Amino acid sequence: MEVFSGRPRSPERHPPVGRPRARRASLLDVRSAAGQVFLLQVVIVVLLVVAAVVGMMLQGARDALQQGRRASVIAAQSFASAPGTAEALQGRDPSAVLQPRAEAARKRAGLDFVVVLSTKGIRYTYPYPGEIGKKFVGTFEPALKGRTVIEQAGGPPLPAGRGTDVQAVVPVTDSRGKVVGLVSAGLTVKNVAALWLPQLPIILGSGGAALVLAMTGTTLVSRRLRQHTHGMSPVELAQLYEHHDAVLHAVREGVLITGADGRLLLANDEAARLLGLPEDAQGRPVRELGLPEPVMGLLASPEAITDEVYRAGNRLLAVNKRPTYPQAGRGGSVVTLRDTTELAAVSGRAEVARERLELLYEAGVGIGTTLDVGQTAQELAEVAAPQFADLVTVDLLDAVLRGWEPTAEGWRHLRRAAIAGAQRMMPVYPLGELITFSVRSPQMRTLQEGRGVLETDLRHARGWREQDPERARKALEGGLRSLVTVPLRARNVALGVVNFYRTADSPPFVPEDLAFAEELAARAAVTIDNARRFAREHAMAVTLQRSLLPRGQPEQDALEVAWRYLPAEAGVGGDWFDVIPLPGARVALVMGDVVGRGLHAAATMGRLRTAVHNFAVLDLPVDEVLGNLDDLVVRMDNEERTGDAPEDHEGEGVTGATCLYAVYDPVAAACTMARAGHPEPVVVHPDGTVACAGVPASAPLGLGGYPFETTELPLPEGSQLVLYTDGLVEDRTQDIDVGLGRLRRALAGSGSRTPDETCQAVIDALKPSHSSDDIALLTARTRAFPRSRVAEWDVPPDPALVPSVRARCRQTLREWGLEESGFATELIVSELVTNAIRYGSPPVTVRLLHGRCLICEVSDGSGTSPRLRRAATTDEGGRGLFLVAQFAQRWGTRYTARGKVIWAEQVLHDGTAAASPLAPVDFLLDQFDLDQLEGPAV
Known about the structure:
By secondary structure, the chain is an alpha+beta fold. It is built from 24 helices and 34 strands.
């Protein structure tokens, strides 16, 4: 009984098969028919040899496998049944007894191995003693039950090679039939494959002989073919015939070949067309073809002719005639015919085509010189009239003229954008008029169909006449005759129509003119759409920029401010300015300029302006504001360079900005300024003298790490501080020093002018005719805070003196006529002074300012800022800042070189403080609401 295991076979090892060496040179041309036949024979022989080898290999392997199985089973069973095998397996040292026997049996039987196993699969014998005692590789469990196992499996190295191919496992039984061991015998793949290798040379020799015979036969056939074809290959013969036929029938000259007997041997298609030859003309005598007498005599004459003209019907034919094979004396002639009338027509069409190409070139150069929609439409009309049409009109959608995206809803309402040509003698719609086209009009049809419409005779164009019957009647009386209307389409969107008219004095339009008009309109539509998109983006950028600039002046007491902002003619920049009220009646002035143009510059300007607002709200020193702004620009620049923006992203990288930041204090009548790469401000004193502010120059924003120097400039009341961007004093035609000189001359004598008058005088004097950069100008005239509206006193660091501070505050408010705000102000002053004495450090100072609002400031020498928190119901303190926040419109902290200032503002209406939303007593009781208050006291 045979049992086969499912284990995969080890990789078979086959001896290398010899391949004949390829010949480096061939006696035959593979492009010839003989060469191709020879290659086919070679392929057939090779396939037959390969098939024979493969079949022999498979058959040999199958026979060898069967033979190996039988040999393995016989050897294994013979050794298992040999006397002494069972006794040796039951002895003390089976390997010592069986190893020599197994090796002797393996060599006698010609096998690769004979292995004796224990019932547990442990080897007692093996060709290599080092493998004895290891686990047998293969299936042996069925043999323990008395069955014979034949399988293919791999194993340890063997003398014939590593791995086995065929092995048999049989049981060894004792005298009682009990299985006491196993015997396995087998052959390797190498020995099996060697059975068919001796037959391989016979097959290869037969294939080589067949190749030699094929080469010999093909060579003989090739020689015979070359003799009959004069050495030309079939491919060359086919090409020769194809070229002859193609040239003969495609050439635009008639070709006739006549024989010595006067018969027509050949006539190409052009000759048959020019002479009107019948289909069976070839082979017939020339006299029977019914040709005109001059042509008949020409063909019958033996003389050579060069460029003589003969009439054939309504054609004038230029004729050339030469004899065929003049040296051989065979007779016959070759005649060529050329139609001179068609040549004239072709020349005329070529001239028209040349003129059209010149017009298209002029259109490419003359249309789109500006990014203005109306101007581009006018350029289109002027290019086409009068070279192509007598009258040209361009009608565009209102959305296109305004820079919006065009829609199909606006097709019926077009606005006349351009007119050129004979409009004076024709009653056409004037420029700027809104035209409502009817559904049947050519203009509406061309928009709906997306292609040009040709009206050869307007007298029969009903749709055109129905549009405006009276105007159409007058136009026809004026001589208008033909129309081509073409849609202006870009990006598959209709922008409008262009109408080409011709009068009765010009030839009417033909279909070829329609194709040219469509080409001209297509080119113009792209430039019009570019102008529209530029107008839209420019409007968007300007709108964005203006939305980011101040729209009105904030309420403040320190400065009288006026400004001017003039955007550039092309694109927008990043110029900005700002007026920011600060605590203590102070005002911050900002003037900046972002490098670059377009939406990116405007958006960056908005981010910087917002950042300056935030830094100003924190009431940081001037140099710290510019330092924080410099860090922001560096971070923005890094984000732009390392972000996911495409390579053509507009404004890639911020690349820097300039800024001037100034804080004016009306109480001290002084201004603290610093500038980062920005032009220096100019000061106009009350007497009209002009001087530079003397602010030290610092590096522009975005370089990072550079300090910003600050200067404090006293500004008497009535002085004017002039801030500006470089677009005012610098352009391509003049240096900045020249512009600064012109600015100082324009400001001379402006001491008595208002800020608005000063701005207008500077703009009138310095505004360029064509501005290539934005211009921002800000003029601020200083006001001094009246000393009568300022009350300031020092407070000793003693809590017992707080009542005296409240009394003095009450007295001051009474002098200012603000008795109604006394309670809230005393409460604010009391809480702030108490906190300054308790948690701050001397000196403690109180200052009251009476302006648009009532400002209370308490300063001390400590840098610790108080924080607002909610006190628990059981806390006795911690509610002071809640009281301040309740009665003040706003409050905060600013830091100075000597400490900090806590300030609170109360809005005044008609000279009195605004009423609080809660009564004082109600508010104090509300502070003990358990749901609202919690945390330690301050």
